[in-house]
Amino acid sequence: MKTWGNAALALTAAAVLALTTACGQEKGESSLGGQPAGAAKPAGAPAENAYGSDGYPSGGYGSGSAGGAAEPAGQLVAADTKTLGKVVTDSKGFTLYRFDKDSADPPRATCEGTCADAWPVVSPSGAKPPAGVDPALLGEVTRADGSKQLTLDGWPMYRYAKDTKPGDINGQGVGGTWFAAAPDGKKAAPASGGAAEEGAEEEGAEDEGAGGGDDSTEEAAGLSVRKDPELGDIVVDSRGMTVYRFKKDSAWPMKTACVGPCLEKWPVVAPVDKNDTEGISTKGYVTFSRPDGIKQQTIDCWPLYTFAGDKAPGDTNGQGVGGTWYAVSPEGKLVGAPK
């Protein structure tokens, strides 16, 4: 037993040493400081002075209905959106979402407790498929509390508490795990013709290394560089949305100060394969396993985010917010931050 324990400690020390080499903290850039190495605030704890740390809304869809009966979807509709193509809505026009931590085969719902406060479940009672959609795609799953939840192609369906009016899609991309549902149950695809998240997962190996066509949006890398007229070269994701860093985070040890409600305003950048990048530094290009269980991409070991307030490619509405959020250079540096 002592031999096994010593070997395990040696392997752990080697892993820490390797990560230390890859993720050495930059001099002169702020960290959370004052905490033990590797420390992180618990999931759900408010980030000090973090944008959007005001908790869940009091007036959104399903707000205050925790523990109450789930509302039925009624006649589902395949609604057209400007940014995501067709998404499924309920009979009142509210967008339905799916959660990456759930599963479709077999159907399983994992959003419970306070999660279900923010993401009210959809009852299967009286649900009818959108026009042209196979009724066999509709189903139901029994939740841990014994209640029933609507499924679409096996995926449990939810609404979002911050969608306050029909047509809202404020839940898209929250935490890098919540996505509007397409009529076939997959993740809704950008209306511009870019690859859907679901397609990227299933066909990434085939698309990798494909040559560029006339439509650069379709072939956009997972992370690339855009020349902004005011900020210069900044990193953008596959949708062309600006990527940001939070000054209260740190690179070594990798720690995040954006947790809980902060992530609703600042969704994490989900892991992107190194081969699916263009023009950015791959130094310290590693995946960060956050204390809340979400996987997050980093550049030079700094956690990366997008901003919910950016509504279209090219927007930089998150730049300078709170004096702590800034766009990211191809090397992972803060762009435009005061010295």
From TrEMBL:
Pfam name, any one: Lipoprotein_15
Signal peptide: 1-24
Superkingdom of origin organism: Bacteria
Keywords, in A-Z order: Lipoprotein, Signal
InterPro entries: Lipoprotein_repeat, SCO0930-like
Biased composition (Low complexity): 33-56, 184-197
Disordered, as annotated region: 26-71, 184-226
Biased composition, class Gly residues, residue ranges: 57-67
NCBIfam families in UniProt: SCO0930_lipo (NF040526)
UniProt name for this protein: SCO0930 family lipoprotein
